[in-house]
Queue: 2 jobs
Job 1
Amino acid sequence: MRANYRMQRLFVPDALDAGAGIEASPQQSHYLMHVLRLREGAQVLLFNGRDGEWSATVSEKTKKAVRLVVQDLQRPQPPLSDLVYCFAPLKQGRLDYLVQKAVEMGAGVLQPVITQHTQVAKPGIERLRANVIEAAEQCGILAVPEVRESEKLDRLLAGWDKERRLVFCDEDAATNNPLPALQAVKETKLALLVGPEGGFSEDERRMLRALPFVSVIPLGPRILRADTAAVAALAVMQATIGDW
């Protein structure tokens, strides 16, 4: 069932069930009262990543808060996507974009990876999670992706689930066409690895190419910025071996 894009959607941490009372956060209350100017009786949609999507009614407004009453289930909770998206963190504005687009493109887990050329050694995990929720609110997504703590590339690979195929975007691949390598993938558990602006080091490329669970793909004849490469790689992967 597709999302209703005509109604305002809000993520809430509370359990959702018919008749439950929910107090909107200060930021949400400000938005509902002063930006949307909703009156009592107006309807919104609520989701929490666990209980599906529910309609809710503005039941009470004070100077500081909006109280919502949960009404009816609109969409059941779908399973979380199994696609793991591994990425080298970028500088803040472009990192926000990258995270939002990864959510829109169907990533189920976001795994920051520290490589030799990574620009940001320790990204703000709470900001990443806030961007995930914002993208889910805007795009009708109910299964909110998980954001994991950053991990160094060698440590991530040492503990890798060997049954999960890792698709590695290599700017120095011998061909421009990613389709043959993707079409050869037989596993159903998938992950994607996109590097930093400076690319992977030679040592990292050798390490990745030597692993039996890694597939190497190019992303065409042009050099892409890291945030552009993220969207391009997710699109071609989803269209070839993903859920498209």
Job 2
Amino acid sequence: MDSGWVDEGFGAVADTFAENFDLFPELGAAVTVYVGGRKVVELWDGEAAPGRQWDGETVVPVFSCAKGLVSLVVHLLAQQGRLELDAPIGEYWPSFVAAGKEKITARMVLGHRAGIPVLDQTLSFEEIAAWTPVIAAIEAQKPLWEPGTSYEYHGHVFGFVLGEVVRRITGLRPGAYFRSVVGDPLGLRAWIGLPAEELGSLARLTEAEGRPPMPGPEHLLTRIVTMNGALVFPGLDVPHGWNDPALLGMELPGAGAVASATGLAGLYAAAVTGIDGSARLLTADTVTDAVREVSSGQGFLGFDAGARWGSGYLLDSATFRPLLGARSFGNDGAGGQFAFGDDEYGVGFGYVANRMVGHGDARANRLITAVRDCLG
């Protein structure tokens, strides 16, 4: 029996959430929806970890939903006039331009068009955790293609490049900057680098049977996802795997966020409407800029064919991720998690789960459809 509540008129979301436990191998999950800055759905059910039930405070690794946190602070800096998204990154990070990266802009990275989805250098886990070795490897990296001419998912590099730009401007890495300007002021349960005191609320990931295996270690997709094998994937109950506090506690801004459903939904609601009486974080003009399509169609690898990318966010796509409309923007996670916002409908949505069914599985899509039906 699921816990939480829904407002009148949103019962279909509760029905769909319950049905997901019958139709899919759900273990534990949660969904939260804000409309007009007000929470209208907050539901959870199932097991967070062996012997511990999910509750309203439960957080879970949400993989690339991290890109939503990073993209939000990037757009905030642009909105404040501190960052020009179409200016060369070298204006903020002079040593970035080596090896043919002079023309790469933050917009190219946000749209996965920078030509540096993976690094030639193989770094150790400890070097990745230390941050600066990754930054040095990025500086030495030559683009795989002429920047701006094609796109491919930039996995972890996305977070490190944009995160270093944030650090150069603000003095803080992206996880700390997010907490200082968004997470802490709004009390959002979402982090890049989970604090040790939150480990007691952490859900444990499990893998559903039948998930398709990753390609071999030399395949570009595997290299992107694992940073040349330094990070295992899905790799759950192994040293430095995705249930390991050492991994979840470090700054991995492309794919290392940990959040609750309410934390993610609140993040996007804060962006598009404000929550609890706060002003919206992103102006209508900033959202218009963010949802302008930057990449779509067949990418360099052909991965995620049908996806449409704005600046840092997935956009509404009938064939990949149907959302609410042209003003919808969000990010998904490899475990099936998804969060998005839409300022036309005033919606912030977050769904998280600890059973990894498969990339792009239907659980979140079914909930989004229910929200759409409830909104009419």
